[in-house]
Every structure is written in C-alpha cells, then in structure tokens.
Write a structure and sequence with these properties.
Layout: E1 3-10, H1 16-30, H2 38-58, E2 62-69, E3 74-80, H3 100-107, E4 110-116, E5 119-126
Antiparallel strand pairs: 1-2, 2-3, 3-5, 4-5
Length: 145
C-alpha cells in the first residue's frame, strides 16, 4: 500500500482552524479529490472538528496530517501535546458545542486515538467510494417522473 503524507503545524489560536481548512482543500485538490466531491466536504468537516478540538481543549499547537492511500482512502490525524484522552460529549438541543466527536463518529468510516510522544493523536479514516459520475446514466426511456 502506497501512502502520501502531508502535514501542517497549527497554532493554538481558533483562527488557525480556517487556515487548516483552506490548506486541506488545496491538498485534497492536489491529490485528485475535487472540491465538488462529497468526499472533500466530509474530510474538510472532519478536519475542522478535530483541529478545533485540539486548539480549543488544549490551548497548544497541533499537527494536522493527511495520509492518502493509493486505493483512494484518506486518513486524517491531529496530534497535540495533551495526554488527556478525547472525551465524547452528548450535546443537548440548545448547546452550541459538544458535537465534534459525534460528528466524527457519524461521518468517518473509522476513528480512534492513540498516545503519541508526550501527547496524543486523534485519527479518522474515510474510504473513497465510487463517484456518482462514474455510474452509467439511465437511458432516457427508463427515466420516469
């Protein structure tokens, strides 16, 4: 399995989340994942949630890594210097935060965390599925309104 890895150091400022999203979009495009693909939107949302968690809950710099497998899957990792494990919360209806790991759990095919150095790395993986544009279109006589 061939893997291409790219990484970005993210400062401990919530404004860095936007920079991480822009960086991720450019790296996704460079890997052949179009900005208009649902996969790109899913990955950018996952990155946004994981980077936000790292920056807000640790107040320390983090490292965002994206690993592109030859088969098309993408692994996202966010490493920080806090040794506290992630703690999923269950937000109530009016809460304005607390849904990050629930989103990760719902959108990623797999996710988890592991110790890394003095801190930890939270990761998620998304498998690339067949694009709608590669499915043969229905013939006009089979389309019904």
């Amino acid at each position: 399995m061939q893997v291409l890895q790219v990484q970005l150091v993210v400062g401990p400022d919530p404004a860095e989340v936007g920079r991480a999203r822009r960086w991720a979009r450019s790296r996704l495009a460079g890997s052949g994942i179009g900005d208009d693909e649902p996969l790109a939107e899913t990955l950018v949302l996952l990155i946004s949630e994981l980077v936000t968690n790292a920056v807000v809950h640790t107040g320390c710099p983090a490292v965002l890594r994206m690993l592109f497998a030859a088969e098309g899957g993408v692994r996202v990792e966010v490493a920080d210097t806090s040794d506290r494990p992630p703690r999923p919360r269950h937000a109530k209806g009016g809460d304005t935060n607390g849904r990050g790991l629930e989103l990760v759990d719902g959108l990623a095919d797999r996710w988890g965390w592991q110790p890394e150095g003095a801190g930890k790395s939270i990761w998620c993986e998304v498998d690339r599925v067949q694009s709608v544009s590669t499915v043969a279109p229905l013939s006009p006589d089979r389309v019904r309104c």
